[in-house]
Amino acid sequence: MQELGATRLVVHRTPRHIYAQVIAANGSEVLASASTVEKAISEALKYTGNADAATAVGKAIAERAIAKGVQNVSFDRSGFKYHGRIAALAAAARDAGLQF
Q: Which family does the similarity line name (predicted)?
């Protein structure tokens, strides 16, 4: 994915948290990030390791990326199956305005 030279939305998940970063095309700069570790996101949730949490992170990362002027990204799921929390994050980011 990095070899293609595209701005990418990278997702990482653990059993308790989910993380998302928008990385510049050159791969050396993080343009936006969001995760369930952040107080603003985790306080609004009962649990941080489920699809509802992934939806909140997807919405937050899309809003932050658009604020930085990034509309189009490539979705890098980091080897995780496109299912469950990963799919929920992607759907929320698309609904909030990111295109991929």
A: Belongs to the universal ribosomal protein uL18 family.
